[in-house]
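Hi,

Apologies if this is the wrong queue. I'm a grad student, and the batch job for Thiol:disulfide interchange protein from Undibacterium jejuense produced an output file that my downstream script rejects. I'm not sure whether the problem is my script or the file. Here is the sequence I used:
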Amino acid sequence: MDLKQCMAGLTMAVTFSMAGLVVAQTPQEVAIKKLVEPRLGDGVKVDSVTKTPYAGLYEVRVGSEVLYTDDKAQFLFIGNVIDTRTGANYTRARVDEINKIKFSDLPLEMALKTVKGDGKRVIAVFEDPNCGYCKRFRQTLAGMDNITVYTFMYNILAEDSTVKSKNIWCSADRNKAWDEWMINGKVAPNAPANCVTPNEKVLELGHKLNIRGTPAIFFMDGTRVPGAMDAKALEEKFASLKSGKAN
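Support response: The file is valid. Your script probably expects a header line. Output copied below for reference.
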């Protein structure tokens, strides 16, 4: 990806970024922000500049994206900072921190709810009915037990995604209709014209949370995983949450 493409992506990230906490910046950080912001292109707003503890770099946060620059804003570094001694990916950890949400703030009444077994392990997932990776992930979930899944139908991939979601939401058994479509390819019956859905509100929510692809999986600790997970990765994540270790 070249710099122009990266800046275009950053502009989109800014559009859907969430408001962050206002933190006092040092004079040096303020000066770097003034220098670097106009160099990122029209429409790109720098949310914060923070000195990092490694290599004299300054973190430049744009929405949920992280870039780096030097103390004179002369060079721009795009990519991951990795500790060669430990293998720790500082950039990924920082992005995960920025992208954290408060799970209890999710409007779960706008989601489908499926409970299996004791339901103690809880996730929320944003899925498009036309998403192949979502269908693969749904197969994975079908084989798991002791889990509660809140599914937000997030229609971003095709014009008829909204229609499919409406038909499913308006079905007598929404959960069954969703699984029938996602797992078995069975289309839900047409919804009554007067049936009201949360489709638009879910779309707004997804934009607010900066969800640009499906599936997007959220865990009770507020962390997210973009993309499908296999059963092994999902079990490892749940184990890390139970032990209190970040993963």
